[in-house]
Design goal:
Blueprint (H helix, E strand, L loop, with lengths): L9 E4 L4 E4 H10 L9 H11 L5 H4 L7 H25 L5 E5 L5 H10 L2 E5 L3 H11 L10 E6 L13 E7 L7 H13 L1 E13 L4 E4 L4 E4 L1 H12 L2 E7 L9 E8 L2
Helix pairs in contact: 4-5, 7-8
Length: 265
């Protein structure tokens, strides 16, 4: 039987200083400074950081714009391996395939990957000049031979965003959940599940800390370990992790990056 005590993860900041456990850390964030609406300043700090970042691949990837095509290739392979047959079956019935890109930034993941697989793509991103750039680049009538197009550009934080129920075959969440508290993470994934069609799936691609978690003091985000994510998915959400896979061939100095395919229960 599973132990009743939830696992505890220990954290360090980006300088290697210990900062206690996940439990005490999120408690402190919740009890800490808030904005006028009563929302932790944790979130505001993250937005302020990204507000000052260029709306380019290099900007959103912290100077690693050159990994974008590698990233897209492995995303495609992973999606095909996990969902290829299901997506083909849906296409055969004449059903429109629809994706949602969360923390979409300037639309890099949609433009380099999702739009090749889905008839319609929606994007959600809290940073105004990023989602503006995405709409400018990807919005409007389709110029593609396959007619695939981007439909909705939602300028909204993930912690409050609610997808349209039953619209999506796949929800893809990449390099953004470090900004969510555990509580908001779980609530957001639950809302994503509501947004799925029958047979739809949630995908997440994210940095993995070696163990516990690492706080980035610049952009107010947390890099969680694989074990920490598995705890959120299996213990907190009660979902099935259908498959997970490490990204190959990224620069060695970066965190490991892992893709997860999730089946809500």
């Amino acid at each position: 039987a599973r132990d009743t005590m939830p696992p505890v993860f220990r954290g360090t900041d980006d300088k290697g200083n210990p900062i206690g456990t996940n439990v005490t850390f999120w408690k402190a964030v919740k009890a800490g400074a808030k904005d006028k609406a009563g929302k932790p300043l944790w979130y505001k700090k993250g937005i302020q950081y990204w507000d000052g970042v260029d709306a380019t691949d290099d900007g959103v990837l912290g100077g690693y714009g050159h990994v974008s095509s590698l990233d897209a290739r492995e995303n495609s392979e992973f999606l095909e391996d996990v969902m290829g047959e299901h997506l083909q079956d849906m296409m055969d019935t004449g059903e429109k395939l629809v994706s949602l890109d969360c923390g979409a930034g300037i639309g890099r993941v949609t433009g380099s990957f999702l739009i090749d697989h889905f008839d319609e793509c929606d994007l959600v991103e809290p940073v105004a000049h990023f989602i503006g750039k995405a709409e400018e680049t990807l919005g409007g009538e389709s110029k593609r031979p396959d007619g695939h197009r981007c439909v909705n550009f939602f300028a909204e934080p993930l912690e409050s965003f609610t997808p349209e129920p039953g619209r999506y075959d796949a929800v893809w969440i990449q390099w953004c959940v470090g900004h969510l508290t555990d509580e908001d993470f779980v609530a957001f994934f639950r809302r994503c599940a509501e947004g799925l069609k029958p047979g739809g799936m949630v995908f997440m691609k994210e940095n993995n800390a070696k163990d516990g978690f690492v706080l980035d003091t610049d952009d107010s985000s947390l890099t969680r370990s694989h074990k920490y994510f598995m705890h959120l998915f299996e213990d907190q959400l009660g979902w099935e992790v259908v498959k997970h896979r490490l990204q190959k061939n990224f620069p060695k100095e970066l965190f490991g990056v892992r893709m997860y395919a999730l089946q809500p229960k």
